[in-house]
Amino acid sequence: MNFGIIGAGTIGQGIAGHLVTAGHRVVLSNKRGPDTLRDTVARLGPPATAGTVTEAAAAEMVFLAVRWQDIPAALADLPSWDGRILVDTSNQMTGPLPEDHVDLGSETGSEFVSRHAPGARVVKAFNTLFAQYIVPDPQHAEGRQLLFYAGDDADAKTDFRAVAEEIGFAPVDAGSLREGGRLMQVGGLLSALHALKQD
Predict the structure, then answer these.
(1) DSSP codes of every residue in 104-167
(2) What are φ and ψ of residue 35, in 5° steps?
(3) pLDDT band at 75 (very low <50, low <70, confident <90, very high)
(4) Peptide bond into 47 cis (omega under 30)
(5) Which residues contact 136 (CB under 8 A, 6 or more apart)?
(6) Residue 91 and residue 66: Cα distance in Å, rounded?
(7) pLDDT at 98 over 80
(8) CA distance linking residue 95 with residue 179, whole number of Å
C-alpha cells in the first residue's frame, strides 16, 4: 500500500518514520512545497519522498496531520477522493489552552474533516496520544502502545487496523466517527489516555 501524509510536523514525520521502517512508500507534503522537505526525507530515508499535497492525497491511505485551523485550506481544491482512506489525526484546538477549543456543536472534528473531503473514507486516529507516544517505537518490553481509532466505513477501519498493527501499535476500535469521535476528542474519555497492551 502507498501512503501520503499532508503535514510534515512532528506527528506527520513520526507516522512517516514508522511506515518507512515497515518498508512502505510514503509521500510527505506540506503547504510550503517539496523543496522544503529535502532534509526531512533524506533523514527518513527511502522509500520516503517529498511531494505536493495533491501528490500525497493521491495515495491509497492518506494521513492528515496539520493544525486544526489549516484543515480547510489543506483539503481544498484536491481531486476527488474516490473512496480512498483519509486518516484524521487532528484535534479541534487552535492552541494549548482550554479556551483554544473549537466548539462544533453536535458535530465531531472528524465529521468536520469529512465534510471537507467528500468521497473520502475517514478514519480518526492518533489524536488521543501526545507526540512523545507516537514518534518512538510503540513496541515496549511491557507491551504495545494502545491506539484508538474510529470511523463509519468497516473496510476502511479494517485496512487501517492492519497498518496500525504492522507498524507496532495495538489498535482499539472506538466506534463511529460520531460516537467514537466524541470519546476521542479533547475532553472525551479516551483523550490523552496512554496505555500499553500486554501481549
Answers:
(1) -TT--HHHHHHHHSTT-EEEEESTTS-HHHHSS-SEETTEEEEEEEEES-HHHHHHHHHHHHHT
(2) -60, -25
(3) very high
(4) yes
(5) none
(6) 10
(7) no
(8) 24
